[in-house]
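Backbone-to-sequence.
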């Protein structure tokens, strides 16, 4: 049985099968790339998840396992609506890992999804149902779970980090340089660049 640390569930907030799937996906990516968990800004993850489907929990598992977190700017979402992710590690290569349809089909027959389809949130599902569905994920082999493909031609150029900032000339707030815009000969933030000038709005009196 795969050993998943309890803190990952605490961080995620509830027990469910998709966070563990992501955790295993991230662990396998590190293994395939021969890379350690990222302390700083090493691994970049391109999650193929979208929104509006409940498997997004997977991404918390990926972040927990790899250290490629949203806060460090190391994970982004491609919005393809697939339970898959691409893992790029500088100097070590790239691997894409996708959940197998067969495992997805097997998992979807579990009682857990009867509750979920009635709109019941994971934390309100009986503990033994949760523990059992998680066991299905942790007991599976990597071969049962995933399709794994090395991507030798994958290229990625991370955005250069900068501390440079300036004050928006409209709202006065600091803005980091790649998000500054020019408008009417002023340096402004994005919301201020999109704002319509108040004096151009004409309110006609009601008659
Ligand atoms: Zn979850
Ligand atoms: Zn502004």
């Amino acid at each position: 049985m795969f050993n998943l640390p309890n803190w990952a569930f605490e961080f995620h907030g509830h027990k469910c099968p998709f966070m563990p799937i992501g955790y295993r996906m991230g662990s396998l990516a590190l293994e395939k790339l021969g890379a350690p968990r990222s302390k700083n800004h090493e691994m970049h993850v391109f999650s193929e998840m979208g929104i509006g489907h409940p498997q997004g929990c997977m991404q918390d598992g990926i972040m927990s396992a790899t250290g490629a977190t949203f806060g460090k700017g190391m994970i982004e979402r491609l919005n393809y609506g697939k339970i898959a992710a691409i893992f790029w590690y500088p100097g070590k290569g790239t691997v894409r890992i996708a959940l197998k349809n067969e495992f997805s089909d097997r998992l979807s027959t579990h009682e857990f999804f009867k509750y979920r389809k009635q709109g019941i949130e994971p934390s309100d599902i009986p503990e033994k149902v949760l523990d059992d569905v998680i066991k299905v994920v942790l007991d599976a082999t990597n071969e049962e779970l995933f399709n794994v493909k090395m991507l030798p031609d994958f290229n990625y150029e991370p955005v250069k980090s900068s501390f440079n900032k300036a004050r928006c000339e409209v709202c006065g707030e600091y803005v980091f340089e790649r998000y500054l815009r020019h408008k009417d000969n002023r340096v402004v933030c994005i919301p201020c660049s999109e704002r319509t000038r108040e004096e151009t709005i004409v309110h006609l009196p009601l008659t």
